[in-house]
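Take the subject:
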Amino acid sequence: MSGHSKWSTIKRQKGVADAKRGAIFTRLGRAITVAARNGGADPESNAALRLAIQKAHDNNMPADNIERAIKKATSGTDASALVETAVEGYSPGGVAILVQILTDNRNRTLPEVRNLFNRHNANVGESGCVTWGFENKGLIRIEASSDTEELALVAIDAGAEDVKVDGSSVEVYTNPGDLEDVRKSLEANGLEVSSGELTMVPQNLVTLNEKDGVQTLKLLEKLEDTEGVQHVFTNADFPDEVLESYRSGKEAAQLS
């Protein structure tokens, strides 16, 4: 598996802000509705729905919201309006970007996403042009302890494929089908799991210079903020100086 991309850290931090304004609940609700539509409303027999509900719990989504999202699947109208699709392409510097979309208005979302690529000097490619460079994995985050080495050993014993330290947390990567079992094993060992989800992990990372890196970060953040976009993945790796330049530019824009 490739090295850790700092984009996942940025997304996690952004998720905190999204939760505060309710944007993340919309995405979580749509994921629950589609999982229930595709596999049935009983989480005991629908693994995708179990994962979607668990992710909702991880993000403190109210139980009423979860129930409403499931009911949308059984009512038919709202669920059938949701369309799953993707846009793939390359940003400045040639890094891959995979945008997973779950929208009730593809005629709005798809043009918006393609327009963002064009405005940020990026190119939209054909279906499948970048997907091959990513692996579907389970990702579990654990609050970091002082002994991350011991934590890593526990995770490997629990069935993890890889463990990476990411700032204040530890990321545990699993086979997609092992995500739930590994999570339960970690929790049984007294570890505090902050989240668990399926993700797309780049097989190789591409390091960007400051100009291309800042422009790519702007594109990624705009994509994340687009209505109907569910997930954004990239194989871009951003050196610390690129991240600092990007943050400085955002702070200057906020003050102006």
User: Anything to note?
Assistant: The longest strand covers residues 134-143. Residues 83-132+204-244 form a domain with the Alpha-Beta Plaits fold (CATH 3.30.70.980).
